[in-house]
Amino acid sequence: MERAALTTRRTLTPHAWHRLFRFGMFAKAVDGVLQSAAGLALLLLSPSAINAIVLFFVRGELREDPKDLLANLLLHAGHGVVRIQIFAGLLLVAHGLLKLVLVASVEREQRWAYPTAIVVFGGFVVYQAYQIAIRPSAFLWVVTIVDVLVIALIAHEYTTLAPLATGDRRSHRW
User: What is the pLDDT of residue 116?
Assistant: First the structure.
């Protein structure tokens, strides 16, 4: 009896998979909004304003410990961003808007968007893995793992669309 209990697999119900998928799409949408907002801020703010914002956030920590690694990294990153401000701003806006368009298209259940999102987000994962290889980052590891999970959820959700003849799943609500 115990052996049977150990070998029984628990699988997620279709409803649970769909809820995970919706949460993943929400997370991607929030990410796209934040990236677009950060890019717009870079494009609209002066270099001195960007430095002032970074300094505002790290000033207290630097007063307590002038050698604080994280605060100094943020301060240094702020100066680095100023040097490539326009490029970084355009990249963030484009990256964020692309995510938003793909998420909105997937949410509208447009079939082309599922494989497109898988390929695009997969490209992001490859680039992030390259960045991790060059400069290891715990934050980038977390982002990459979340991206891989979202890709898996999109792929799973896409397979639930395949049996439907017309591709219109609007009548099929979870």
Answer: 97
